[in-house]
Amino acid sequence: MTIAITVATATMSGTATSLASFSYPSPIAYGYPNMDVFAISPVDRSLRWKSRTISPSGDEVWNPANGTLTNLYGVVSDIQQGVTTGTRVAGQADLFVIGTDSGLWHKWNSSSGWGLNPEN
């Protein structure tokens, strides 16, 4: 019996962005070219977001462009040690956190913007 093993090689390219001022970065890819990174601000425990798209010329674009992340205006409980991410459909990111009220909160994005639901 002969067993064939194929090993894939991956390469990474692009520009690194320091997220050292944010805690627990959690990435999600939800259909090419969409990729987001969510994190928690250690200063005020706010939920933060950075997204990647592809420009019309084919270049990778991160928003916001500098080393900051957009504030999604949710405050995360002190017991929360990260953001749980997932996706139900292509083009939509879902995230779950424990809020300061100890409730489970669900935020999602779609072409119309961000939605929010308490999942109590």
Structure notes:
It is a single chain. The chain contains no helices and nine strands. It is mainly β and 120 residues long. It has one domain. Strands 1, 2, 3, 4 and 5 form a five-stranded antiparallel β-sheet that branches. The radius of gyration is 17 Å and the shape is globular. It starts with 22 loop residues before the first strand and ends with a strand.
Helix content: under 10%
Q: Mean pLDDT score, rounded? A: 82
Counted by DSSP, the helix tally is 0
Largest sheet: 5 strands, antiparallel
Q: Kindly report how far apart the N and C termini lie.
A: 56 Å
List the main descriptive attributes of the protein structure presented here.
globular, mainly beta, 44% strand, four-stranded antiparallel beta sheet, 120 residues, five-stranded antiparallel beta sheet, single chain
Structure summary:
The protein has 120 residues and is mainly beta.
Detail the topology: elements first, then pairings.
Layout lengths: L22 E7 L5 E6 L5 E9 L5 E4 L6 E6 L8 E3 L7 E5 L5 E7 L2 E6 L2
Antiparallel strand pairs: 1-2, 2-3, 3-4, 3-5, 6-7, 7-8, 8-9
